[in-house]
């Protein structure tokens, strides 16, 4: 909710420019659908309060509270219920049905109270269907608010402008006896305040010099002085202490205020101090002489003088359980104790009304008291001021009146004394500090458009009010801070979980942006730095409105990136806002030079630029992404035009940036190592399978383990000489990189030795020696090696050596399956091997299937596929191509068990065409 003030103290006229023509309004009134009051408003507006509510459902309840608090503060309890009902209906129409902001303005005059509710959807007209009597049943949604206005309000109407639609109503005040302002409800006897004896109310009158001029009998009984003993003496001579406890307002100053309530002590004739609760009222007699009437009761009987609406907790040390008063509590409208924003907003509104100002503002101090942050204002551009920060210490362009009360009669004579009021038209201002236990917690100010409006008297009144509200504000601020910290911890825990759940660089960048928008900022940009010598690169941009992402990305790509400074914390970056402003200005100037053509062509040409300028025109901050003592990027957060970040959000963003930086660096390291690993693994895989005349060759390979392309199983098919081809399939003990290292040794050694013209057994014996030479790094290896010679008759001759490997299976055309070799010792265990080769002839249509033990040892519980199970599957492959055979075998292996394979698998199928 934002609030504002109508300048100049003028009441809006229904015939202002932009309203509907009078004959149209008269027609509406003539039909009885709308009653528009065209009589001149002669009543002088004596007070006003305004607020703006966002188009969300909770705004209806907030608007009701605003109207209730305003009328309660004005003393109009008799009409509160009617006003709240009507306001609720009209605000619901605006924020729920019209879907726009709702502006509520309360105007007080001698005749009554006028409340105006405006929305920003003038095209959505009020439902008019004949008279109010024909609008439908009471259950009908449309028109119900107007029916209530007609039934309850004394006068009401509807007014249109090009940008707003306003529904207003006026409630007349009931006739009351003179002097009656408001009264509390009748209470049962057990709820009335307790008094331990006859209640005595001392009535003391003080003249303009501060001397006692009247002293009643109850005063004599309470303090022991006869009237002639104290008449003519200053009241301060009887005061037990010079200042009211807990405030910096002295009794002398309090006696000068028009109305005051509080506690102090009176020293009696016996020398003892009697704590009293006093209510001071400043009056003027028939001769025009001012004086002050003081009503005093014993402090524990303070409920006698208190306003019934105020019921805070009892003060520490109070001798009774009677309620403690806080005069400023009713002044601010008694918000919920944990509603800091509502408390601050009501405070500035009542402060403005108390001093009859045009605007008011309240700032809260940071924990170190070095800066003040704007938290509430009225009558000022709230969006531009909210969360803006100014230094506390005095100096040019700084907030020089934070620690002491200050009155500036004319800001034109001291430019920059109150930076928040620059360019607002305010001339005079009074500011007072909010302090708790001597510590600066904030500052409260009231300003006016005219110069010379405020003096030290107004400063004292405002200071007293600030002293009474400071503790409540600080308590609510600490409560809000605690809730923010709890929310921040939950946010950071969730962010850490999300960031830890991925090692993909692009996904990490996306998560960083999505966690900040819109929770922390309106838009976000992530810059990354590849190495120390590289410039920052714009890697990711996100805005809560997806249609603006391309425009922001284009804008940021045209300006220099922020400097990669490793200093922790957020720093302001003004380049995006300046570039957006310049771009919007150039577009506007170009549009002014365009002539002819439809209007929409002009607006469409400048629309995206203006929208982008508005999106990035607010405060932009940069947080370094530092990981392992190196800046790896920058996280840039931005707000739309004239908005600022609050300090708690920046601290949370800093915590997030540290976690995000580590996650981004981990993703970078993982990506680099994965790329290196994959490059090395790909070097272990054989190149493309050679084409062999008359023979189909198909290979399927699956490496166990995430991210592995090569494991302990390997295969190779390669030409040895003209018309002779070598093939191999093997399995190194184990899986992963260590097994892959032996894989590389075996595959490359096979090619070199075979092309030297050695026989199959000689090739494997030399390979066995090479493996044993690796020493501790050696691993045993099972290997099926063979040489193939296609024949002119269409068959193929194979010479095979099976060194500890699963035996190859031969599938004949008639569907029979048989082993095509005999088992021999594996490699890498013994030095002296005696291997021999076997000759196999494949007839046309025959298939030779070679697999690793990852296929045959596929398990599901206690069951294992085994050699027999593989043979059974192979018998179903008669007539299939080599590719179809390999695919069917792999599918059968995968379906045999539900778990993912835990061992590498390789399938080599060769079929004579």
* Residues in helix, %: 25-40%
Biggest sheet statistics: 6 strands, antiparallel
pLDDT averaged over residues: 77
How would you classify the helix and strand content by structural class?
alpha+beta
How far do the termini sit from each other? 82 Å
Shape: elongated
Adjacency order of strands in the biggest sheet: 13-12-11-16-15-14
Q: Give the strand content.
A: 15-25%
Number of helices: 21
Gyration radius, in Å: 44 Å
Which helices and strands appear, and what pairs or packs with what?
Elements: H1 22-31, E1 47-53, H2 58-74, H3 80-98, E2 102-108, E3 112-119, H4 144-152, E4 155-160, E5 165-172, E6 202-206, E7 212-215, H5 217-223, H6 227-230, H7 251-256, E8 259-267, E9 273-284, E10 290-298, H8 327-331, H9 340-354, E11 359-365, E12 371-378, H10 382-385, E13 389-391, E14 406-408, E15 428-436, E16 439-448, H11 456-500, H12 505-516, E17 523-528, E18 537-543, H13 549-557, E19 571-572, H14 575-592, H15 599-616, E20 620-627, E21 630-638, H16 647-684, E22 695-702, E23 713-721, E24 724-732, H17 737-755, H18 760-772, E25 781-790, E26 796-803, E27 809-811, E28 817-819, E29 838-842, E30 847-851, H19 853-856, E31 859-860, E32 863-864, H20 866-875, H21 882-896, E33 905-912
Antiparallel strand pairs: 1-2, 2-3, 3-5, 4-5, 6-7, 6-10, 8-9, 9-10, 11-12, 11-16, 12-13, 14-15, 15-16, 17-18, 17-21, 19-20, 20-21, 22-33, 23-24, 24-25, 25-26, 26-29, 27-28, 27-30, 30-33, 31-32
Helix pairs in contact: 2-3, 3-4, 9-11, 11-16, 12-16, 14-15, 17-18
